[in-house]
Structure formats: structure tokens, C-alpha cells
Amino acid sequence: MKMLIQTTLSTNALKAYFQLLGWLLFNHSMWRQFVNQIDTTLSANFALISTLPNRNPQLKQLWKVALFVQPFVVVYITIIILLFFRAGGYPYSHFGQDLVYGIAVSFMLALTGGVLCSFIVSVPFGILVSGLGSLIGLLFGLTTDYVDDRWAIVLLAFSLSFAGSITNELEPKSSQTFLKGNIGNLGIGIIFGIISGVLIPFVVWFVGYHLLGKLIFLWIQSTIDFPTQETEAIELMVCYTSTAITAGLSLTILLEKRMWGLILTVLLSVILFIFLYSVLYIVPYTDPNTYIKRIITGPLRGTFYGLTFSMVFILAYLLTEKISNLWAGLISGTIACIASFFALAGSELEVYLLIFSIAALIVGSTQKYWLPMLVYPIESAWHLILYNRLEKYPERVAELLSQHASFWHENQSYRFKDLPQILLKVRELSPELAQKTALYLLNSPQSWAVPIFHLEGSLCLLERNSQNIDQIIQIHKQIKIGEVLSTNDKKLLETFYESSLAVEAANTKSIFSQKSELINSAIDKLKGMTIGININNQASDQKIQRFGYLANTWVMMLTQYLEGLNQVESVPNPYICGTPLHDKTRSFAPRKEVIKNIQEKVLQFGGNSLLLYGQRRMGKTTILVNLQAELPKQVIVVFVDLQKIASIISTAKNEGYFFYLLCIEITKSIKSKYPHISLPNIDIESIQYEQAFFTAWLDELEDLLGDHSILLALDEFEALEKIFAHHTNKDAVLGTLRYIAQHCKKIRLIYASAYTIGELGNGTWSYYLVNLQYVHLGYLSKMEACKLITAPIKAFPLRYTPEALEKILDLTHHHPALIQVLCSEIIVIKNGQPPELRLQVQEKDVEEAIPEVLERAGGIFIGMKGEAGELGKKILCFMAKQDNAISEQRLQVAFPNEVHLNEALKLLQKRELVQTNQVGDYLFRIELVRRWFADS
To answer: 598 with 627: CB under 8 angstroms?
Structure first.
């Protein structure tokens, strides 16, 4: 997935090396894409010699990594491992010298062997061999005394076979061969490897050393006079250098670019000459177990191993690859190195080393089987960390997802059990990214997770959207039945898909028999699915259980819906006009934001009193009587209707009767909800005459509440004006409310009123009701209004056309009481129509209901008129008779003598009766209100 995985080589050389190593070990597709970016004609196993000349910047970075960076990285790895062994207590005789020696061997081995293989055989092979070559340096660094060269062959066999196996996998699958593939290539590789391993060293040695070397030495001896004691040393230097020249010329013949073969011949000769000179004239004169000795012998040994085995491998590889293919050449080169080692050593090597070498070769060649198993626990642990980071940093979802092993370890055949869970988490954060990820994984070994991801997503969607008939109708538009799902899973989802389609089709039919037929077909499909689950004994499967539960839920809902259609001679009228709703299962419009605001203010530590204010008939009382269900059980909501208390007090003779009635309401409410709570006695003789007795009663009540607290909800707060007019001391009542707010820790107050405190008592109440927090209850949101209209109760059979729904919203401006009245009148009209027309509301039905609404909702309109003030009434009547919005200048012309015109307009805006448009002109908020004023 290009959007997640970077295929450009990093500009940081060290980071680029590990990037290349990661691609070669785990993500061959990324390596192939990278090579294709350099040159579309290059093979995945191209050698650096084939790229000359090429000035591609990515290739320059690759040259830098292959020639310079990887030897130093090998040194770092060697140092870390040796220090680790040292810290673990490995018995070193001379740790410092051994560390230097191991580093020197690793560096020169990686430099000579890795560079030669990258240059001639293959860049991937050279990078891998260079890294694994550090194991040989490690072996020497761990040696406590004399370095045992014999074990180097085992490590060499493993390194070459491991690198060769990965190199072969980089080729197109059609050309990859192993034991299951072309046995002939394997046989050619083994045969040529053994022959080359014996023949190449023998031919090169015989021609270079015994023929060319001896002849050159005799010529030098006849022309140059040198001391007799140096004759043997000079002869060795000449003969060995001639051997290097012979090997280089042999390589030149096999290479297509002969010039580079000649250059390599010169380099080999110079390097071998320096090596021999050092061995013959420098090393013998240095003290053993010293840093100087180690510094000299380490690079010499690394260079010797690197050059010797690289040349044997390359010559055998080139000979075999030309007559067979890549895999045969790699096998031939590996076996040639092993065979030449044993051929040169002769009888000095034990048989067990041969056995171990063969075992190492087999282990390295089968890396594709054990390497995924080796790294799987590490990858699984990393995924756990990755999921936690996704939850902590959701904004980094794309970056973190790209770090999942399913994107960078493409040959991991073991299943990442966490993958479906991670995909679901990604879908929560970025659905588009999750979809693209699923498409990418379809072509990977982790494709098994995609069906689980799709199925789980569909299940969650069904569980989320199976609450009512309207949601069932929309389900088929949201479910996607992909080809990746199994046949059984497809059938399960198709059942819900087809059932949703059937219910949607039924909803468009006006004839009951047609509706019934379609809904019954959906019910039969769902019942058939549940029967099939039970017959096939799949009920124990958790996934199947969830499908079965959903099917039963749908059957129950559709059956109830159909029964409702069967029984409805007339559409039920759930709308309640004029009285508070004490049951949320009826046509209750949940005011989520308002409720949340109240919850936060009530539950916050040290919260003050609240005032819920808004127009009359906005639903303030309904919110208060239903507030108990929205708060924790420890909070006891005591609802007090002050309008009712005002009517009782109007006939009372005692001015303290108000406190007695409050005690009665509090006691009754607590006893009905928590009968186990002990309450203080109500002394009617004391409380009704003395405020102090009431506050003492409250203090005693708080002591008995325990973990509970009281929210005292005083509805119709403006009714206190009437209470004060009937023998009730205003200062005593308001002072008591102030005492509760300031001193009662377990009693909170919430008032509901059509006015703010500043408007009550001519502003005098503000002195008592300090630190009051306001919660405004305005019109419904569009979503809340639509839900109240279309789904006032469960399985509501009436459906609205989009035009009819928009008409209701325009007429009412989302006013809850007016929606209730208008919808109630619409149902009356629909029940008077023929059955085939009864269940769908048209725009003309809404228009037909308007006259009845203006008559029936007169109380609402009169209340609005009363709140407008005398001048406001005149303004509203004038505005109602105009066709368009009215500017303030026009109103001033219409009311030239009214000096309080601006104050009246502000009051109308405050009462939410009028509003201004973008240019500042005035217009009615509610079209129904305008029509009522126009007719009055």
C-alpha cells in the first residue's frame, strides 16, 4: 500500500542500510519496487557492475550503503555482541585484544566479501552475506586462545546458504526453484559445486602457483640479485601473487564487462601482495597477545577469508549460472566454498565438521520455514504495543498502521490474531483508510483477517441500527456484502439485506395487502435463518448467536409492526397537548444537550442553584418530572409544582403554610423512591408558623440522607408571586431558598420559569437568589423535531413525505407544543381518509390541519400574546398582516408616537417571538404564530 509504506531509500546512509536489510528479509515486494524505481530493466538480483554507468540518486545511495556503510554496521554488531558476552561473564583471557581482533576480522571480511559479491553476484546477496559474515568475526573474537579456523566453515556454510535462499526468493515465482521445484537445478548446483570446489582451487593453484608463479620467480632470480635468506619469502610472494592474477583473469573471462575484471585482477594482486608481505615481514616480529599483533593479524585474516571464499564462490556461481539458472549458481557457489575448504585442508579436518557444515547449509537454505516462526512472538508483542499507541494517538493512525507486521513481513504465514481487532480500531478512526487496508491485505498471507473484519463490521452495523423500523428500512443501503466473505456468511448478511429491501418496498405501498405480503416475506426469511442455525447446530458459535439474536429482534419488531397495521382501523394518536409527559415511552422529545447541561451543573462539586427558563410550553415541566432517570440513583429528585401550592395557600389562613407543604412534598417523594431512608417528623404546629423550624428540619434531614442527596425541583417558579399575595412572607421564603443554596450540602435547587430572575419581583428577587446558573430551553433541534414527528412512539405506522415533513418544520419552527398539536390534528385528518391513503402524510394533509391548529392551540398563542406586552401585541398584529420581513424604519413609521418601540422589539426577541434576518429586518420566528395573529 503505497500510502502506508515508503519505497524510497532514506537519505541517512545508516538508516538506509537497515531499510534495505528489512526489505530483503521480510518485504521482497518493496525491494522489487525500489529496483524498478532505479531502472525498469534491472533484475531484482542485479549486481552493481551491471549498473555502470548510472547516475540515479537512489542508486548512488545504494552504492554508498553497499561499499561503505555495511562494513561499519558489521563492526557495530560485532562490538555489541562481544560486549554482551563480556557482560554475561564469558571467560576472556585478553578481552581488549580479542575485541579488537574480532572487529578487525569482521570489518575486512564484510568489506572484501560483501563488496565483491555485491559487485559481481547480486546486491541483495552481498548485503546479506556481509551482515552474516560478522558471525565469523564474532567466532574469532570469542576465542580465548588460538583461533580455530575449522569452525569458520560451518558459519560460512550457513551464511552463504541463508543469503542464497533469500536471493532466490527475490526472483519471479516462475523462476524460483527448490526441492519442490526443478530437481535438475538442484542436482546441477550440487554436482558443479563439488567439482568447482575441488577443480577451481586446483587449477588456479597449479596454473598460478606452479606454472606462472615459478616462471616469474626464475626470471626475477636471474635478473635481480637479492639475499639468499630471503629467497623463500620472495618466491612465496611471487607465486601467491601469480595465483591471484590467475584467479582474476579467470573471473575476467566469465564477466561480460571485461574491463572491470582486469581492474579486479590488479586489486586482488595488490591486496594479496600486501597480505603476504605483512605475514612474512611484519607479523613474525610482533609480540603475541598484544594490540599491535591483533590489529595486524585481524585484517589479514579477514581479507584472506573474504578474498579466498568470495573468488571461489563467484567463479563457481558464474560457471553454473550460465548453463542453468540463479538457484543452481548459488548452490554451486556455496558447495564450492565448502568443498574447497575441505580439499585444501585435506586430512586435518574431522568428519563431524562436514556433518555440521551440511546441517548449516540445510538450515540456511530453509530460512523461509523457520524465520517466520522465530520472529512471530516478537511481532505479536509489538502489535500489542501498537494497539495501545493507536488508542493513545488516534491522529497518527496511518503512521502507526504502517508499522504492523502484515505490511512489512509479507511472507509471514502465521496468523496475526490481533489483526481484525486493529482493523476495527482503524475503521473507528479512519473508515477510508480501513477500507484501503482491507483491499491491500487481500493479496497477502493475512487475507484471512479481511472476511472477519468485514463480517464484524457488518454485525456491529446491524446491532447499532436495529432499534426501530426506520433503521431497518435503511440497513440495505449501509451493508456491503463483499466477495471475500464465506458462502455461509454471505447468506446470513443477504437475509438481512433482502429483508430490509422488502420492508422498504412495503413502506412505499398504500394498499395494506401489499404491505402485509412484503413484510411477511421478510419475516419468513429471518425465521428460516434461525431455523437453519438450530438445524445445523451452529447456536454455540458466538458469531452465529449474534446473528440469531438480531434475526429474532427483527422478527419481533416486524411482527409488532404488522400487527399494528392489522389492528389499526385508525392511526393511534400518541401526541399529548398541554400536559407534562410523565412517561418517556410516549411522545417525548429528548433534549439531550439540555439534559447534559443540567447533569454537569448538578453533579459538579460545589454546584450552585439552577434556573431552567424558556417560553411556555417548551417542555420545562416534562424535563423536571423525567429528570430522575437521567441522574445517579444517589440523587433524589423532589418535584414541587408551585402553581399547585399557590392554589392551596390561597385558601390557607397561616402565612407559614408554605414550609409545611414543602416538607410534605419532600417526604412523599423520598418515601416513594427510597422507603428505607428514615425521615424527621413533621411538626405541623411548629413548621407552619416558624421559618427556623423548617431550616432545622432540613438540617436533620441531611443527617439522615447518608450517601444520598436531594435535587429540589421547583416548577412554575413565577407562581411565588401568587403565594406571596396570600399571607406568605416573601423575605422568609426567599431567605430560606438562599439558606438552602448556601448552607445545605446535600440539597440542590433547580427552578423552572418562563422568566429570568431579573424579571421576577421587579428585580428584587436577585438579592436572594445569588450565584444562580442559567439553563436555557429553546426550540427543538431539527433532529429532535424530526424524531418527535416521525417516531413519537415505537412502531409508529404513519409515514411522512419529505415535503410534508419540511412543511411541519417550517410552520412550527421546531416548537415542541405546536408540533404536538399539529401532528395530533394531522392524525385526526388521516383517520378520516380511506385505509389505502391513511398511512402516508402528504403536504396537503398538513395544510388541511392548520385551521384546526389555530383554533385548538389558542391557549399557546394567547400565552405568547400575554408575554409580548401591550406595545408588542400591536407590533405583532401589524407584522402578521405584512407579506415580508419589516424593517425598523417601517415600524417607526407605523408607530410614530411610541417612544418605547426599541424596548418592545427587544422584548419580542427575548420572548423568541420575532427574529431578524441578515439585513436586520424583523420577521416572525413561527409561521403558525404569524397566521394566528393575522386572523385575530
So the answer is: yes
